[in-house]
Amino acid sequence: MDKTGVHSMRAAEEFLMREIAESSSKLEKDCFQIAFVIFVMGHVLAPRTKHDYGTIDYWGALANTENISQFNWCEFFLDFLIEAVCRLKNDMMANNPNTNLVGCHLFLQVFFLDNVDLGIFNKKHNVLPRISEFDQATIITMITMGTDLGKGPTSYSKCMIRQVSDLCYARCNLCGGVDDATNQAAEVGKFHQPTSLNEEHGNQ
Q1: With the CA atoms of 67, 69, 73 and 75 taken in that order, what torsion angle do they form, in degrees rounded to the nearest 10?
Q2: What is the mean pLDDT of the chain?
C-alpha cells in the first residue's frame, strides 16, 4: 500500500473494490484481508473524529495475515469504546463545547436495547450476530418505547432489565456474582459486556 494517505479509509476502500478470486496471488489476498480490517475498524468498530481516517493502534496485528484471527478484536474495540465514553463524560462534566463522539455507538445502542424489557418490542436472542436483528426502523421504535415520557431521548429510567433466561448475554452484578434479578431499573453498570462470541453464547 502506498504510504501516501496510508491512514486514509479511501486507500483501504480502493483495495476492497478490486477484483479478488481464488486465482489471485497471495499478496493480493493478503492486501484484501488487511484492507477489510482497516475499513471495518475505521468506519464501524473504532471510528475516530475524522470519518476518512482511522487509528493505527492495531496495525501490528496485521503484520501477518495468518494471525489476524488470533487477535482479540472484541477486547480492542471495547477498550477503544470505553476510553471514548470516559473522554466524552469528562468533556461534558467540564462543559467543554468541543466534544467529539468516537467509538462504536451502534454497539451501545444494540447492547442497551437488547437488555431492557420493552414488552412486545423485545427481540428474541436466538439470532447471531445480534446486529442482524436491528435495522434503522427497529432501533428508532425501541428507543421511542424505552424513553421516559416528557424527559427526552436521554432518559431511560423507567426501563426494566430483561430476565437473564431470555438473553444470550452473561450478566454479573457489581460485586462479581451472577445477577439473576429481574424488574430492576436499567443500569448500564450492571451489564457484563461479552468479549467473545463464545461468552455471548453463555459458553455453550
Answers
A1: -80
A2: 81
